[in-house]
Amino acid sequence: MRKFVVRRVLLSVFILFFVALIMYTIMRCIPSSFTEAKARQLSQLPGAKSYEEWLAQLNALYGLDKSIIGGFFSWLGDALRGNFGDSWYWNKPVLEEFRNTIWYSFVLGAIAFVLEIVIAIPLGILAARKQYGMADYVITVVALIGISLPTFFFATLLKYAFSIQLNWLDLYGLVGRFYDQLSPFGKILDMGKHMIMPIATLVIINVGGLMRYTRTNMLEVLNADYIRTARAKGLPENVVINKHAFRNTLIPIVTLLGGTLPSLFSGAMITETLFQIPGIGYVSYQAMINGDIPFYMFYSCFLAILTLVGMLIADILYAVVDPRVRFD
Prior knowledge:
This protein folds into two domains: about 30-85, no CATH class; about 100-290, MetI-like fold, CATH 1.10.3720.10. The chain is built from 14 helices and two strands. It has helices spanning about 1-30, 35-45, 50-60, 70-80, 95-130, 135-150, 150-165, 185-220, 225-230, 235-260, 265, 270-275, 280-290, 295-320, and strands spanning about 85, 90-95. A hairpin with a 4-residue loop joins strand 1 (about 85) and strand 2. Helix 1 (about 1-30) packs antiparallel against helix 14 and helix 7 (about 150-165) crosses helix 8 (about 185-220). The longest helix has about 40 residues, at about 185-220. The relative contact order is 0.15. The mean pLDDT is about 80.
C-alpha cells in the first residue's frame, strides 16, 4: 500500500506539472486579454499615454512580455513559494478571493452531493430489483427527465413556481434584505432558505445519471452466477441484495464518486449565476473570460490536485469494498 501511494504521488506531481503548463498556455492564448482591456481604458483618460505605451508597460508589469515557457516557469517559481499573486480582475490577493467564495460553493455542492447519493443509489437498486416493473419505469422516466432538462430551464421553473406564484422563496441572492437584523440562528435559517432552490436544481439535474448508473451495474451483478447460487441456497432476498450484490456494485460506483471530489469545490457556474450566488464557479468563470491568469491558474491547479487525490482515494477504496483487490 505504501509503495503504491508513493508511486501515485510521484506520478501525480509529473501530471500536475504538465496540466499547469497546458492551462498557462491556454490562458496566454485566449483572445480576451486583461492587459489589453486595461491599456485601452487607461489610454482614454485625459492626458494619458498611448494605448501601445500602456500595453507595453502592463505586459512588463505582469510578466507577459516573456515567452510562454519563460512566463510559466516564472509563475511556477512563485507558486512553489506559496505566492500566487493578486487577482487582476478582482483586484485583491488570489487566496483572499478564493477563501471568500469557495465555501459558498462547497456547502452548495456538498449538500447536493449527499442528497444525490441518498436518492440515487437506493432508487437505482430498487429499479434493478423491479426490472420492467412499474417502479422501474417510473424511476427511469424521472431519471431521464432529470438528465434531459437544461439547468437554466429547471431553475427558471423553480423560480416561477416558488418565488413568483407562491412567494415562498426569494427569487435570487444568498441572504434576504433583513439579514443583518436577524439573530445568529435566524441568519443561518435565512441563508438555508435561499439555498433550497439552487440545491434542488443541482440534485434534480445530476441525480438521474447516478441513478441509471447504479441500476445498470446492479442488473449486471444480479445476473451473475454467484447471485443465482446464493438464491438457490435459500438465502433471504434482502441478504442477497444487501450483502452479496450491493458490495460488488460499489466498485464501479466508487470509481464514479471518486471523480466527484473536484465538483464539491469547482462550483456550479450556471446555477450560481442564475441564483446570483457569489460562489467559486461564477468567480472563476469571470476570471477566465477576462484573462485573469493568477486567479485562474491557482484555481485550475487546485482542481487538478483534487482530481488526482480523488482518483487515488477511489483506488484505495477498491480494496476496502472488495478484499480481492491487491495493489501489487
